[in-house]
Amino acid sequence: MGAALPVGKLFRLSALASLTLLAACGDRAMGQLCAPDGAAPALLAPVPSASGPMRVYWDGSESIAGYVDGATDSVRPLGDLQPLLAAHARDSGVAAQWFRFGERVAPLASGSGLASTAFYRCGRQAACDNQESRIDTVLNRMAERTGPGLDVMVTDLWLSNTAFQGSAEIALGQPIRSLLAKGKSIGVIGVRAPYAGPVYDVPGVGTHQGARERPLFVVLVGSRTEVLSAYRTLSRSGSPALSGERMKFSLFTPEPANAWLGADLPIQTTGDIAAQRLIDGDQSDALPQLRLSLDQLRTGQAVLRAPVRADARILPGAVWKGRLGGQTQVWRRAGGCGAGAWQAQPALSGAWKPDGDTGAVFTLDGGSTQNLVAGSDYLIQAQLTSRDLAPSPAETKWLRDWSVSPERARTVSAAAPAFFPTLNLAAFTEQLETGLRETTPAAGLPLASLAVLVRVEP
Length: 458
Fold this sequence. Notes:
Structural class: alpha+beta
Helix content: 10-25%
Largest sheet: 7 strands, mixed
Mean pLDDT: 90
Low-confidence stretches: 1-26
Shape: elongated
Radius of gyration: 27 Å
């Protein structure tokens, strides 16, 4: 088994290649991987995902009626959103719980009637609550929720003085930071929706007339899987109101990429480095498995490189750009499959090397492997990360473009644009960006995650 791979050869380690090498050489396998705590989820036993009810908070303010009045024969966002969300809950196997919010939050018996103007123009009813939209109250309820489940808010996100109490940093920023700190993801869908009717609480104006389109928003809060599943349901629904021409999306999440590279990790080698199957069982095809010579690494005759692009696996709309960094974790195999089967080792030094502005190269060479010991098996895990997130990222530009500040509201109203922007939307966006930045762990947001199992020979 001594033949080296050709210098500079790019290869992907498949199960077939590993099996062939094992059969040819008869080298011992270590049995099950029995990955240690802290290993990538793909290397651990599957954990059943929990589910919880989908809670939909629907803005009941009078201005929302303008989306009903402005709907055309084909573009009817409110009329499409309600059945699509109901179907999404049903297809996900969870209950849908509906709430109306204004100054207060009140449960609804069902989601029916939400595309009728009577739902919003309820002034003659004693319990009508259509003069305010307390966005902060809904965000706080979402932040206080325990257990799994998707939260949805359908609203115009018109952030006038009555939309929240206190400063934006506290009223909006505090629940946003709480959600992100818990590992929740926040998705913001914006829809360029037909509109007919007054726009209330315009600073310096009062009531604006003449808007023919306004932004309508669907805010999704939950696990990354829950948020993306709901987004895909809506974006792929075929609704003209939710077409690519009308719909925008931004994602604020501690997991902005499908980071796991697994056995598809592209590896470039020089010297005596070869594929060798080292484990059996469910994880045998989950990661590259290699044999390498420590002497060749330290004399510069052998090097392993795995180039990784930072933006190759980013999720739709995800905010992620910042200063690239990298980290590693190393475990040495002690034997067995119980506690102590793997022993934590010092991290590799200098294993990530910059590769332009948008990538890095994971490297095993004489420098990064200086603490490895011949005659040992190691599980080496590495992440390419993003830290110090950049302000005003490209993924949120549309939110800023759809915003109007209180200082400019009167000027914008006088210009009578067909598409009337949303008050203080940029301030809401800033709280989302700041919340993500402040809750990003010191190691950064994971953009790519890899692992290799290596047998170190002299």
